[in-house]
Amino acid sequence: MQKILQALKILSDEIRLKIVSLLAENELCVCELMEALRMSQSRISNHLRILKNTGIIEGKREGKWIFYSLARGTMDKVLWEIVQAIVNKIDEEEYLTREKILIEQLISRRGEPGHCPLPH
Predict the structure, then answer these.
(1) What mean pLDDT, rounded, does the chain reach?
(2) What domains can be seen in the chain, in order of their start residue?
(3) pLDDT at residue number 42
């Protein structure tokens, strides 16, 4: 029960909700989240650290880059159902339309000079 309460507290932050919703659709690096959410690297990294410590997201290193995604395979079943319900509601209400369009543009430029590499 404590783990679920802790996760709900963490997910009550608007920025972390946005990050979780964006990561539900794509594996993303810090720089892509920075650009989509118009925030500094330190702020995004702090939110990612909190989400990772709770077991909601995980990171995969690709050289000097870390790509983040939802921790689908290791997340507690009840927590996974809560995250899915929240993400589905955010998608249904189309809260992140601008951010999702921007993410798609950023993903299409992966591998180009000055952009994130293609994840393996």
Answers:
(1) 90
(2) 2-108 (1.10.10.10)
(3) 97
